[in-house]
Design brief:
By secondary structure, the protein is of the alpha/beta class. Helix content is 38%, strand content 21%. The longest helix has 30 residues, at 2-31.
């Protein structure tokens, strides 16, 4: 056991150092490119002019007049590198992206940051080096009794996953009058009856966050001090809002406030500001794993950690909340996107804590989707969920409906729910004018038929294609829809956890050599699953004839290509 523990810790430490090395190499190469190229690839915002600034606490908020060439895909809370178009120079400023606010395009920087220049600023994607946090957590894993005797045995052989069946029956009975469905009741009861930890698999639209909040509510009833954590702030905020509606105890988020994502959340800069340091509980604290190893919440300790997005969370990140709590409940779905890994790996999914713990034990799957209608449920259910995922009665019969007759009823009529548009083009790699034009045409037809811009999503594999489509949406013919900015065109990584009435998926590629080289990326099953399960009633697949023929050639020998081909075949 000691040898296995040291081998695991050493392997994770090697992974951390390799990640940092590859990340910095990629970042420096990216920062050295000309600004137009960085902007076009969606990795930077350029040509910004300072409109004003204000000091709040120990930070300065800087507001820019945004450029019309803004193509970056930053999210609120992302770290960015602010500079006078010299991100690889010595005078860059570390900033946090706050998004469009009432004062302009806003970022938070240190209070003493030099922003005397008014024009010429750029915001570049930062290299988010978390290796110091990871290495400190791995050191604590080996140095503390809790790490050695509790956390490591759980990671190595699943010790602590045992279920008290009598307790499970009791908790199930206590949840009979709740609004949870049968599989959600089972999942919550399994967690409550677990000795140390349990995993809950939440396929698309199955109410994973609702079940998570129901679990937290029961833990609060027991007087527990609950940590609610995830890799992204967005996931934490979403879970906190669901939870706050169900509990009567202190609920705080430990971080800087998020101007565009603050509704229903009370923020505190540090755990000490909550006055809960010596509080016996119950209470609920939302924080990222990294806050637990910083001055924000380094002194906080919990009875239970409820951890979301664990199929996207690397093991070394999950160790942080595991070290700060006595019991842990992991919510995720190994059939959706894996962690972001920059070093060369065969399958990034192997890095996730959900995958590691699934190998050693069991999990409970939520089985009813409240998002997808019945036709859209079939393909993911058959290909990823052993046929067990079913559409709820409330949404099974929903169909895509326009207020006026569509110009192409075979595509945008109520039936079928999944359709495809096959286009003749060749030689395209990361962007396609032909597919971008078709996507824009589909969007215009949907808008003319009364679908709100915010209910249409476009998924693309490459940022260059996202930039091309978004440029088309700036054309005059789209200006009559004032909320066109709410229409999201993004990569699949940015869409996980979101939903729309209709989704358009553009595959872009039509260069055989390029497809051969990116085979594992283009046909990665989890990416396809996430892409098509964002929709409630309509999915339109846009692809080249060459892409379909390429899949047909590879499907007999490549299981992933066969899965991708089955998606196209399932669409009419």
């Amino acid at each position: 056991m000691i040898h296995q523990a040291e081998e695991l810790r050493s392997r994770l430490e090697r992974n951390v150092r390799a990640e940092a090395r590859h990340g910095w190499e990629s970042a420096r190469k990216r920062w050295g490119k000309p600004l137009p190229e960085r902007v076009l690839s969606g990795r930077a915002i350029g040509w910004l002019r300072v409109a004003g600034s204000a000091i709040i606490g120990n930070r300065r908020l800087v507001h820019f007049v945004p450029s019309l060439d803004d193509m970056a895909l930053f999210r609120e809370g992302d770290p960015v590198r602010m500079s006078l178009n010299a991100p690889d120079g010595p005078d860059y400023i570390e900033a946090t992206f706050l998004g469009l606010t009432e004062n302009g395009l806003s970022v938070a920087v240190p209070q003493n940051a030099n922003i005397e220049a008014r024009e010429g600023w750029s915001l570049d994607e930062e290299m988010f080096d978390l290796s110091d946090f990871y290495l400190r957590a791995l050191a604590e894993l080996a140095a503390t009794a809790h790490g050695r005797d509790t956390v490591l045995p759980a990671l190595l052989n699943g010790r602590g996953e045992e279920i008290d069946l009598d307790a499970h029956a009791k908790f199930s009975d206590s949840l009979d009058d709740s609004s949870l469905d049968h599989s959600q009741v089972d999942a919550v009861a399994m967690c409550l009856a677990a000795e140390r930890f349990h995993l809950v698999q939440g396929p698309p639209g199955t109410g994973k966050t609702f079940a998570l909040a129901g679990l937290v509510a029961k833990l609060v009833e027991q007087g527990q001090r609950v940590l609610l954590t995830a890799f992204t702030h967005r996931a934490i905020h979403h879970a906190l809002r669901k939870t706050a509606a169900l509990v009567n105890c202190p609920v705080f988020k430990i971080s800087v406030p998020f101007p565009n994502d603050a509704e229903g959340i009370e923020f505190k800069d540090e755990f000490a500001d909550t006055n809960l340091l010596d509080h016996p509980g119950p209470y609920v604290i939302g924080a990222t794993p990294f806050a637990l190893f910083s001055k924000r919440a380094g002194e906080a300790r919990f009875d239970v950690a409820v951890i979301d997005e664990t199929s996207q969370m690397r093991v070394e990140a999950a160790i942080m909340p595991m070290l700060r709590a006595q019991r842990w409940f992991f919510f995720g779905d190994g059939q959706q996107l894996p962690p972001v890994v920059q070093r060369p790996v065969a399958d990034a999914a192997d890095d996730s804590v959900f995958a590691l713990l699934s190998k050693n034990g069991d999990h409970t799957m939520l089985k009813t989707t409240y998002r997808l209608n019945e036709p859209l449920t079939r393909w993911p259910s058959e290909n990823f969920y052993q046929g067990e995922l079913v559409a709820a009665r409330s949404n099974a019969g929903h169909r895509f409906t326009l207020k006026s007759a569509p110009a192409r009823p075979a595509l945008l009529g109520p039936e079928p729910s999944m359709v495809r548009v096959e286009i003749e083009h060749e030689g395209n790699r990361v962007s396609s004018t032909e597919e971008a034009d078709e996507v824009a045409a589909l969007i215009e037809e949907m808008l003319e038929g009364g679908i709100p811009p915010g209910e249409i999503g476009v998924v693309v594999p490459f940022r260059a294609q996202a930039a091309r489509v978004r440029n088309l949406l700036r054309f005059e013919r789209f200006t009559k829809w004032p909320e066109i900015g709410k229409l999201t065109v993004d990569t699949v990584e940015r869409f996980q956890g979101q939903e729309r009435e209709a989704m358009i998926v553009s595959f872009v590629v039509s260069d055989d050599a390029f497809m051969d080289r990116l085979n594992s990326f283009l046909t990665y099953p989890q990416r396809l699953n996430v892409a098509v399960t964002r929709a409630r009633t309509k999915v339109v697949l846009v692809h080249s004839v060459r892409f379909r023929k390429w899949l047909e050639r590879h499907a007999t020998l490549d299981e992933d290509a066969a899965t991708a081909l089955s998606l196209l075949v399932s669409a009419c």
